[in-house]
Structures are given as structure tokens and as C-alpha cells.
Amino acid sequence: MSGVHPAWLGGLGGGAGLGDDVVLTRDPLCGLEAEAYTIARSGGVTTVVAADEAGLMYGSFHALRLDGELAAQTHRPFVARRMVQHWDNVFVHPVMGQVERGYSGGSLFWEDGALTDDLDRVGDYARLLASVGINAVSLNNVNVHAGEARLLTDRLSEVAALAARFRQYHIRVYLSVSFAAPMVLGGLDTADPADERVKAWWAAATQRVYATIPDFGGYVVKADSEGQPGPFAYGRTHADGANVLAAALAPFGGEVYWRAFVYNHRQDWRDRSTDRARAAYDHFTPLDGEFAANVVLQVKHGPIDFQPREPVSPVLLSMPRTSLAVEFQATQEYTGQQRHVCYLPPMWSSVLSTVAGAVDAVVTVSNAGDDRYWTNHPLAQANLYAAGRLAWDPALDPIALLDEWIGLTFPPAAAGVVHELMRDSWAVYEGYTSPLGVGFMVHPGDHYGPDVDGYEYSRWGTYHFADRDGVGVDRTRATGTGFTGQYPQPLADEYESLDTCPDELLLFFHHVPYTHVLHSGKTVIQHIYDTHFQGAAAVAEMVGRWAALPPETVGEDLHARVADRLREQVRSANEWRDQINTYFHRKSGIPDAQGRRIY
Ligand code: GCW
Questions:
Q1: Are strands 70-75 and 512-513 parallel, antiparallel or unpaired?
Q2: Quick one: 289 exposed, middle or buried, by C-beta within 10 A (0-12, 13-18, 19+)?
Q3: Which of 88, 93, 101, when mutated, tests ligand 1's pocket best, judged by the most ligand atoms within 8 Å of its CB?
Q4: Which atom of ligand 1 is nearest to the CA of 101?
Q5: Of 292, 296, 279, 276, whose CA–CA distance to 358 is shortest?
Q6: Nearest 5°: phi and psi at 144?
Q7: CA of 145 to the centre of ligand 1 (A)
Q8: Domain 430-473+511-588, second-level architecture
Q9: I need a labelling partner for 509 at 20 to 30 A (CA). Which of 157, 193, 223, 378 fits?
Q10: Residues 108-116: contacts with CB within 8 Å, 24+ apart?
Q11: Out of 3.20.19.10, 1.10.10.10, 3.30.379.10, 3.40.50.300, which CATH number does the structure's domain 7-75 have?
Q12: Whose CA is nearest to atom 12 of ligand 1?
């Protein structure tokens, strides 16, 4: 690297991080692909070789993680596109706040309706993302409000300023745009993708973007979803809609991330024939092969909406002629809102083990904000960390990644406690919240805390159908909504049959009596009682473990922050336990076999 001083090298901590014992060689003829690197360490000297500067950067971050000798290894990203998406608003939204479903304070990018004046913090964030392999970031909420729509046009200089910081770490910047932008911003009377004026507007707007930001990544679009405008208004398909934006971006190498999160959010709860789980597949699989080459269809990992437990979305297994992105949610909307410890990578890893061969991109909704620990709950950082690392290599063991993060973050004296707190935290969370894959027993609107019937008679299409005899959603082909038929074999039959449906997804696919016996040997009702008592008890234990760790081991402020969040987690877990158990006890009339306290 003689004579080359890229910003990321300084960002690695200068001499302190990457010392003279690291030799970086950029060799365009070394035969490695873009972003790949070879790393070795022997006799105390680390060598990194890459064909491009991005590869050298990733290798340098790897060098910082190394401890001990290493025979030469080559690392290359599993997918070329590894994106973090923000649901940040420029202005504070009256209902959603500044960051929609954000639990870490305000936006890192905007403050008081203007670009942040702390661009150095944005640079730190860029380094943080690059260090785990992220190479793309979208800056604003997929629900694009009027003020935010203007980032595409007269507020473009703010995007350019942010892009400059991300560029230093080889991260490309994307914008969420409104499908109605030609009307909202361009004064046209239509956004019909077949209209020549609409095509011309997108082409001109996109050209202006690239004139300002030559390495701009592209657009993210939420269309015909939860009130956002889309092509259905004009009788056009989502391929028609996506392809117009794709055509505008193609000359510059840009891409459209088009979300598959399209469903009827004005459903009648009385109508048992409509199944929200079916929606994405029904809308999108008929369009396989019709999307332009630079459209990436972005699919939430489960068929409903980031619940603590869902099966993998069948869309990810059914569109071989479409570029696909799997979307994960690091922001813990339904998984404790960064007040509860919930280490999610074991969930993501199991999804990736099913879909890795089918996806071209991994997208994670960021959990970071302007909080001093980035993520409110300091332990929630691990989710962002592992999201990047898994996008780079989905085969990595999520628990090994947890230990990697712990090793880079905490002194050895704290490592064991943090590991114990986090390792099973997803299972613990699932235990005291939603049983057997049923989902959505949350407080409507803010989605925090239990409210078993909160969504039961609502328009959102998320029901559990509990009555005095049983609970769960019949999604079978034989007697239900037929959703199981959207899966390829063997999954279609595995989920269809009570004999083979995994316990943890039972109520997602089947409506069963409370006395139904699980593969575990327990009845459904006893499972509900047991997991809720055990889950809440496990949280109480976590509090004790953390309290036993001397505050100075991790710093008093951080220790107090975690302790405070754990107190809330205990309170909330007890509330979940008591409401869920009481609800099902009252419905079923079946007592707990162990006679524990139910209200
Ligand atoms: O889970 C739902 C959230 C919305 C979000 C939407 C989406 C950004 O409650 O807040 O909107 O998903 O993913 O588009």
C-alpha cells in the first residue's frame, strides 16, 4: 500500500489498530475477485493481499480480529450485495417518531429536519458497518412521507454529503423513494408506469442523482403496501412498476430493491378465506422472469412480519428467474424493542441455511440510532454485528459470531456472563411471548408487550383463532387456507401433516385442540404454561447474573444501562407470562399440571 492512504486505513485506529506488523498488498493481478482477500499470519506478521481496495479493507478488518498464527486463507463474500436499510425520517413523525420502529433514539443522519452536523459520527457508523462486511446502506424510511420524498430532488445535496462519508468505507448509498414521486415531486397528474411522461420523469430525476452522486446505489421501494402508492392504482403489475425505475437506473449501474411486502391491510376478520401469509407469493410468483435484470425483489424472511418465529417465506424458494434479497429486521420491533435481550442470528442463520442458494442479496433493517451505545441496549449491537458477518458468510456459526463480538467488545472477565445472557436469549424471548409460532399477541400499534386479542378482530390479517377448544391458524391444503401448498416439497407435506410439522411452528400451520400432544410429549396447553413460566424465570436469572458482574469490569455506565434494561425485561416477561397463561387458562378451563399461580 505504499503511498496510498485511504480513509478507512486511518479509521482502523491508525498505528494502534493496524500496526507495522500488518503488510497490505494490493495486486490487481493476484486473481482474486472484487472484495475478496487472502490473509495469513506467521511469525507475528499479518499479510493481506487483494485485487482491489475494498478487499484490502475487509482483510484489514479481519486482521484486527485475528489472534494468533493463521495459515493463508482466502475470504470472499457470499453475496455481492450486503445492505443495511434505515427507516429514518428527516422530520419527527407524529406517530412513528423520527425512526420508524427505531428504539435507539433519533436518526444518525438528520436532526431537527436538517442534515446532521455530526458527519463524523456517520463516518464512525460507516466504519462499523464496513468492519462487518456491509457495502450498501439505504438512508430513509420505506414509508416515504412528503418531506422525505424530496431527498431525491432538491435535498439531494444532503444525500451526497452522507454518501461521501460512506464512500470512504466502500459503502454505496441508496434512497427509499415514493412510487408517486412523479406526482408528488414532478407535478404530473399520474404515476402510471406506462405513461411516457412518467418514464421521462424517472429518467431525468435519476440522471440528476448520478450527476451529483456518481456511485449512487439505487432505489428501495415499498409500493401498494400499508397505504404506500403503487402500480395497482393504474392496473399495472409490480413488474411494470419496478421496471420503469430499473430502466432509469440501468445506464448508471443502479438497482431497484422492490419489496414483496404487499398484502391487504384492510381485511375483514370475519373472512376466513383471506390469509395474509399467502399474499406475497400470490402477488409475485406469477411475475417470475418479468423483472428487469437490475431489480432485486426484497422478501421478508417469513411470510407475515418479523415475528419471533415464522417459517421461511415460500417466495424465497419459488422465483428462480428473479434476483432475490432476504430481509431481516435487526430493529427489534416484535422481539423486545431493544429493552429485552434477544440475540437473533440463530434465527437468521436457520433461514439462510434454507435460502442461501436462492438469494442474491441480504438486507437487514438497522437497529442503530444516535444513542451513545448505537443500539440503546448495548447487547443489541451483537445483532447488527452478526447481520453483517452472516451476509458475508451465511455458513458462520451464530454462536461463534456472538463470541467473536463479545471478544472484540468486552474484557475477558465479562465474556462468560455476556455469553450466558445472550446465547439462548431468542429462545427465552419466544418462551415467554408467542407460543408455537402463533405470533401477533402484541399490543396494537406500538407492538410492545402482551395483548392476546389486540389484533384478533382487526383489519391487519393477523389472527390466532383461540376459542374454548383450541388455537392456531389452519393453513393446510386439506381444510385450511392452502398456504402449505406454496412450499416446494418436501416442505409442503412436512408443514401439512400434524405428524411432521415441527412443534415450534404448529400453531402457524394448524388449528389444534389444547389437548393435542406435541412431539415433545406435552399437550399444547401444558407447553404454553411451561414455556411461559420457564421463560420468565430465565429472565429473572439473567438479572442475577448481570448483578453479580462487578460494574467496573464493563464500565459503570454500561453496567447500569444493561441493568436498567434487564429490570424492564423482567417486568415485561412477568406480564407476558401472566397474561398469556391467564388467557389460555380461562379459554380452556384446563389447569396447570404443576399447579402454579395463574390468575
Ligand atoms: O412490521 C411492519 C411495521 C411497519 C413497517 C412495515 C414494513 C416501515 O410495523 O412500521 O413500515 O412493517 O416493513 O414496511
A1: unpaired
A2: exposed
A3: 101
A4: 10
A5: 296
A6: -95, 110
A7: 14
A8: Alpha-Beta Complex (3.90)
A9: 223
A10: 108/368, 108/369, 108/370, 109/139, 109/140, 109/158, 109/162, 110/158, 111/370, 113/147, 114/90, 115/158, 115/161, 115/162
A11: 3.30.379.10
A12: 305
Rounded CA gap, 21 and 46, in Å?
6
474 vs 464: CA distance, rounded Å: 10
Superfamily (CATH H level) for 81-396: Glycosidases (3.20.20.80)
Atom of ligand 1 nearest to the CA of 100: 10
Integer Cα distance of 263 and 277 in angstroms: 9
Mean pLDDT, 10 residues at a time, the chain of 599 residues: 62 61 94 98 95 96 94 97 98 94 98 97 97 98 97 98 97 98 98 98 98 98 97 98 98 98 96 95 98 98 98 98 98 98 98 96 98 98 98 98 97 98 98 96 97 97 97 98 98 98 98 98 98 98 98 98 98 98 98 98
Residue 7 pLDDT: 77
pLDDT at residue 338, rounded to an integer: 98
Instruction: Confirm or reject: Cβ of 143 under 6 Å from ligand 1.
Output: yes
> In the 8-state DSSP scheme, what is residue 171?
-
Find residue 218's DSSP bridge partners: 174, 255
Alpha helices in 168-217 (DSSP H): 181-184, 196-212
- The residues of the chain that CATH labels 3.30.379.10 are 7-75
Distance 136 CA to ligand 1 centre (A): 20
Where do the H-state alpha helices sit in 440-555? 491-496, 506-509, 524-547, 551-554
Intervals of CATH 3.20.20.80 along the chain: 81-396
Nearest CA to ligand 1 atom 1: 305
CATH 3.90.1330.10 location in the chain:
430-473+511-588
Contact (Cβ atoms closer than 8 angstroms) between residue 513 and residue 524:
yes
* Chain mean position to CA 56: 27
CA dihedral 456, 458, 460, 466 (to 10 degrees): 10
Q: Which residues pair with 40 in a beta bridge?
A: 47
CA of 155 to the centre of ligand 1 (A): 25
- The whole-number pLDDT of residue 13 equals 54
Q: Which residues contact residue 281 at a Cβ distance below 8 angstroms, ignoring those fewer than 6 apart?
A: 303, 313, 314, 315, 318, 486
Is the distance from the beta carbon of residue 327 to the nearest atom of ligand 1 less than 6 Å? no
- How far is the C-alpha of 385 from the C-alpha of 479, rounded, in Å? 43
Fill in the DSSP letter of residue 166. H
Cross-strand partners of 259: 298
Backbone angles phi, psi at 25, to 5 degrees: -130, 120
Clarify whether 333 is annotated catalytic.
Answer: yes
Ligand 1 center to 99 CA (angstroms): 11
142 in contact with ligand 1, CB cutoff 6 A:
yes
